[in-house]
Amino acid sequence: MISTDVVIVGAGPCGLFQVFELGLLGLKAEIIDSIRQPGGQCSELYPDKPIYDIPGIPVCTGDELTENLLKQIEPFHAGMHLGEEVTVVRPEGDGFFVETDMGKQFSAKAVVVAAGVGSFQPRALRATGIDEVNEDCIQYRVRNPEQYKGKKLAILGGGDSALDWVIELAPITAHITLVHRRDEYRAVDASVAAMRELVKAGKVTAIENAKVSELVHDKGVLKTIRIAGKDDETVEVDVDQMLVFFGLAPKLGPIAEWGLDINRKTINVDTERFETSTPGIYAIGDINHYPGKKKLILCGFHEAALAAFAIKQRLEPDKKVHVQYTTTSPVMHERLGVKADEE
Ligand code: FAD
């Protein structure tokens, strides 16, 4: 069990900035995200696209904003838990019990939900017979590469994840069949070249302009996949397991079960503290709703600042929380780890 002041659900730009605002007030945070990299929509949906409306930064890409936020929160040493979805948030004692789908447990005095448009989940394969096949024959992420040792594997998709795993698993599998609905790949050129080399070497078969249409099984154990090409000709390939990489789509997911006042996939909050209907649970960024809400990063940053003050006040009800400037406050300098000669 990890004990902390605040658990932040979501490591998008607003969740990352929340770490900073809490840190300035001397509060420790643990931040959890279901995807494997921080940055939320900025890194998942538009890493190379320019953003022009971050105050004081005339232009930066989604990735650059994420990198800068990560640098800005370094002094506060927040625990970062990536690739784990928060499934449980419930009041316990004076605070909250939080648990992820990997079984990691937290005890926190407050929770900030910065979950954006929801948790990014893998897009599912649709094919005839899929409901009858055992779940462990069809996987959407690699937990343990060793389990594919000596197996006939099908990998579906044409992006970086699909090709990275083709390259990584080819040496240990019996054979890999890569199935992609186009003949162009959305992966980096070096990965496409490496995959083509594996095809030449006979380790991989690439079936392009095609999709898996049907799964054949024996008592739930996957045996064969039927692959339909452009002109509906079908190829059958015997496989033991399948890995599907069709990208990620956001879903509100478990948040809907945390007893919060939900308004069409968003969480109602007040505009003084950004607190939800459960005292001690706050919501900032794209996930929250209030009159006049705008889903913009700079609005989420403001919300993070006010939520941090509200949390500090909640945890220390007898003390007045003063605004201090980072420019001049020795306490802030100490928390930021700024040396005297930089002051
Ligand atoms: P998100 O960025 O959505 O991050 C939320 C994170 O929470 C996600 O990583 C998700 O995986 C995680 N999460 C959710 N549920 C769980 C759970 N249960 N457990 C664990 N993790 C969870 N805004 C601007 O201000 N300026 C722009 O120029 C701009 N351009 C944009 C361009 C595009 C193409 C898009 C799609 C958006 C753009 N936006 C822009 C909007 C901006 O990206 C969002 O407002 C911003 O990302 C919201 O940040 P967030 O931290 O609230 O949420």
Q: Could you explain the architecture of this structure?
A:
By secondary structure, this protein is α/β, with parallel strands linked by helices. It has 2 domains: 2-120 and 249-342, FAD/NAD(P)-binding domain; 124-246, 3-Layer(bba) Sandwich (FAD/NAD(P)-binding domain), CATH 3.50.50.60. Helix content is 22%, strand content 30%. Strands 1, 2, 5, 6, 7, 8 and 21 form a 7-stranded mixed beta sheet that branches. A hairpin with a 2-residue loop joins strand 6 (86-92) and strand 7. Helix 1 runs parallel beside helix 6. The longest helix is centred in the C-terminal third of the chain and has 19 residues, at 297-315. The protein is elongated. Bound molecules: flavin-adenine dinucleotide (FAD). Flavin-adenine dinucleotide binds at residues 9-15, 32-35, 40-42, 45-46, 51, 53, 85-86, 114-120, 253-255, 285-286, 295-298, 300.
Helix share of residues?
10-25%
Summing up helix and strand content along with how strands pair, one would put the structural category as alpha/beta
Spans of at least 5 consecutive residues with low confidence? none
| Quaternary structure of the protein | single chain
Bound molecules: flavin-adenine dinucleotide
Layout of helices and strands:
Blueprint lengths: L1 E8 L3 H12 L4 E5 L7 H4 L5 E2 L8 E2 H12 L5 E4 L3 E7 L2 E6 L4 E9 L5 E4 L15 E2 L12 E5 L3 H10 L5 E5 L9 H12 L3 E4 L2 E9 L2 E9 L4 E5 L2 E4 L3 E4 L10 E2 L2 E3 L12 E3 L4 E2 L7 H19 L14 H7 L7
Parallel strand pairs: 1-2, 1-8, 2-5, 8-21, 10-17, 11-12, 11-17, 12-13, 20-22
Antiparallel strand pairs: 3-4, 6-7, 7-8, 9-18, 14-15, 15-16, 19-20
Helix pairs in contact: 1-3, 1-6, 4-5
The protein binds flavin-adenine dinucleotide.
Flavin-adenine dinucleotide (FAD) binds next to helix 1, strand 2, helix 2, strand 9 and helix 6.
